[in-house]
Amino acid sequence: MTGLVHGAGTVADRSRSPAPLARRVIPRRLTVSEEPWVLALRALGLGDVLVAVPALRALRTAFPDHRVVLAAPSELRPLAARIGGIDLLAVRDLDRPLPRCAPATAVNLHGAGPRSSELLAALSPARRIGHRGPGWPGPEWVEDMPERERWCRLLREHGIAADAGDFRLRAPDDPGPAPGAVVVHPGAAFPSKRWPAERFAEVVRWLLDRGERVVLTGTGAERNLTARVAALAGLPPECDLAGRTDLDVLVCLVAHARHVLCGDTGTAHLSYAFGVPSTVLFGPVPARRWGPPVGGPHRALSADELRHGDPFGAVPDPALLGVPAAAVLRVLAEQLIDGENGRVYHLL
Question: Is 144 a residue whose pLDDT tops 90?
């Protein structure tokens, strides 16, 4: 078993400038309009939508005379605006039907399961874009491939040009509450993706000893976790922003950060979207699927780059636990102190 730090090579950033910001947000009750529209379903979280940015941009380009609508949770509206030319239909989950208003084209960016396909098919779209399944033409689902490429491949198989490198978002002008800080995000949606609080605290102490400004981020439900990290590290409570930032503020924090340290979370994907240097700890899902794009100032650390464990597990994954604090400190020293951004690192 070989540990891995998956990092940037010499490939140039292929992302393009985003389209102008959208100004419309669609209410849940859609009304029939003569304006043709495309509905893309991605009723998932922050990171899930960010990996779909290239595909959404491709849809915007492919349907210049259509309204392009993303069905996703309402709190992701700031992202819909930054993608450019995308409206949002607030959809929390797949437990209830979508509004009855037939789109010209329905695009399943949610997955390949029957529920998402059924919800979109019930709208009777004139055209269906998705993976192959009952009533849906398209490519077979391939499990092990990068997520940005997965959705671009899907569109290309349906005759729509798509570039997985078109993932960058325009940074907000607002510098947020802590410009130039190292943003540390200890939490994750499930315990399997949470590196131990004690190790985060060791890294935060190291950063503070070197004069770095550090802030912690997290959800309201993660306040106990971030408070523990802050207490162990000797970080002042006012630097713990968990539960005090909505997505707009988090976007500003990450976009203007000096560095981001976190697990495989939506915060990591924000660092990729804004090109902010980051160190991301992986397990149980491998970096080759959900990790940073090649060519950016990012490092993805894992003790086992081949492992694919349970992403919903109740305990930290072995690939994550196998990353020692010393390895993170070594990578941070090379990035923050030496400015090293072009190597691929391997843990021993």
Answer: no
